[in-house]
Each structure stands twice: as structure tokens, then as C-alpha cells.
Amino acid sequence: MRLIVCNTFWKRLRGAYGHDIHQGVLLIPCRRVHTFFMRHTISVAYLDADGQVLFITRLPPFSLGPYVPNAVAVLEYSLGKSLTDSFLAEAVKELLILKERRFSA
Questions:
Q1: pLDDT tens digits, 39-77
Q2: Does residue 72 contact residue 49 with C-beta atoms inside 8 Å?
Q3: CATH no. for residue 60?
Q4: Which of 5, 24, 75, 84 is a plausible cystine mate for 45, CB 3.0–4.6 Å?
């Protein structure tokens, strides 16, 4: 599964909408997501600053996910796809790279 990193306002606004259903989307920073105008149910994992998974849920179309106050990123991925170690590791790697860039600037 390919990972798309959305770390600007416009990229986060678009999120998974319009992307191939087999791609994962990492939204940074993010504490809550929605599936308005989407046609498919997606799986969502909320991550903290260290890349630890805080909460996983499924969101059907036209729904609002929970607000997770300790989350700094949200990983959206296809329903039915498992959150594999390699996919999660790729997302955590991107999260930590962006975190490092932010604090080293």
C-alpha cells in the first residue's frame, strides 16, 4: 500500500477524498477526521507524537470520527486492509521525519 503524506492545510482538507482506495493517507497535524463526500468506508488510526497507535476505528461515508486530544496524526487506509507492521512503520517514519524537521528549523 502506498502512503500519501498530507502535511499542509490544502492536502489535509482533501485527505483521502479522490485518492486511489488502495493508498494510505497520513494527515499531520490531525486529531479528528470526517468522511463527508466519500463513497467508501475507511479505517482510521490515530497516532501520538511518538507514533504509538492511540485509537483505531472504521468510518462509513458521511460520518465524523472521534476527537482524540493526544493525537498528532491520523492514518487513513482502506477498509479490509490490515494495519500491517510495515505500513505502520512507514507512517511512523514519515511522522518522525516531519517532527524532526519542525523542531530543527
A1: 888 889 999 988 888 998 999 999 999 999 999 999 888
A2: yes
A3: 2.60.120.1140
A4: 75
Burial 11-35 (b: 16+ CB within 10 A, else e): ebeebbeeeeeeebbbbbebbebeb
Separation in Å, CA 49 to CA 7, 19, 60, 81, 100? 14, 25, 26, 24, 11
Top pLDDT among 102 and 90 is at: 90
Query: Under 8 Å CB-to-CB from 40, ≥6 apart: which residues?
Result: 21, 61, 78, 79
DSSP calls for 3-24: EEEE-SHHHHHHTTTTS-TTEE
Residue appearing with cell numbers 461515508 = 61
Question: Could you list the residue range(s) of the whole structural domain that residue 51 is in?
Answer: 2-104
- The answer on pLDDT for 104 being more than 60 is no
Q: Is the pTM here over 0.85, yes or no?
A: no
Task: Report the domain count for the chain.
Answer: 1
